[in-house]
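Let's practice the habit of predicting before peeking. Look at the sequence and jot down your guess about where helices and strands might fall. Then scroll down.
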Amino acid sequence: MPVTLEHLRRYGVARSLFKPTTLGRAIGKLGFVQADPIRAPARAQDLTLRHRVANYQAGDLERRYPKLPLEEDFFVNYGYLPRENHELMHPRTARTVWTPARAQQAQAVLAFVREHGAVHPREVDAHFAHGKVTNWFGGSSNATTELLDVMHYRGMLRVARREGGTRVYSARALPADTTAGAARPEEAAASARMDALVDLIVHKYAPLPAATLGQLVHRLRGAAPQWSAECRPSLARAKARLPHVRTDGIDWYWPAGDSPRSVRWQPDEDVRLLTPFDPVVWDRRRFELFWGWAYRFEAYTPAPKRKLGYYALPLLWRDRVIGWGNATATANGLRVSFGYVGGRAPRSASFRAGLEAEVARMRAFLGLPG
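Done guessing? Here is the structure:
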């Protein structure tokens, strides 16, 4: 029996929404959790994990991060990775070369961080008073914050914890310090690491249309710029080794050992509000192929032009995204409104019960009164 789009849709939903487990195991199964600072009604990483971690509450990841074998870093997006996945990208060599003065500044900051153990950016700024710079968005940023961000990206620092959402940094171990002359993997080892990073992408977002696979592999230029030349060969090797099928003129890829036709991939009856960054809905190309309508993230769209809402949460029922919800936490509880692709909610009693249960779960997750 050929693999159909229906098989791929059920497989994509069911394999990502696995049975809730512990926080560490859930992040290990996902391989990477994308982070986003917008809180509407909670941050993306928390909204992702609440479906996959038993009894998860908003903020649990930030609270427990210091004691878990995790790292914050840029992968195909910024987020959280198990330490073994993070190490695949390091030691990282940035594409830009620092001036001698900038390198000297970084070394001074690194020595300060090592001396103090874990430091808040304001402590570094108070000690060095580096002034202001223009940030990526064209505005003015604190130069110390910008330097700490770059040192983190280069692998000189790691995020030790967060305080009120602000990253508190500590120094990484010397072998990962790109300024310490650490040995770089040989060419064959670099290829193997890039293949492992590609497999991590496929594991997270499968099944992937060929265009999305290519897009995400291209983003590895940011994750491991020192191996940018390996992106194209790694993509070719992935397409050769991964199981795939052509359906309606589109090539789809998934991890070795999986079978999208298997009866094990059966989505449950739950109704779920997903973050726009959830792996089930992250790929807008796949979203339209699976569900036949265009979902757009409108947080940065001018309010008069929004069609769904500032932070519309895709509404999943079984293996179908049938609409969206906008949720707001208030002093009196949770306020939620819904919209439906078909113009109105399904008449099914099981859907109504599932929606009520999902709103109750969201309320408990946010710690709001009933």
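How did you do? Residues 175-182 have pLDDT under 50 and may be disordered.
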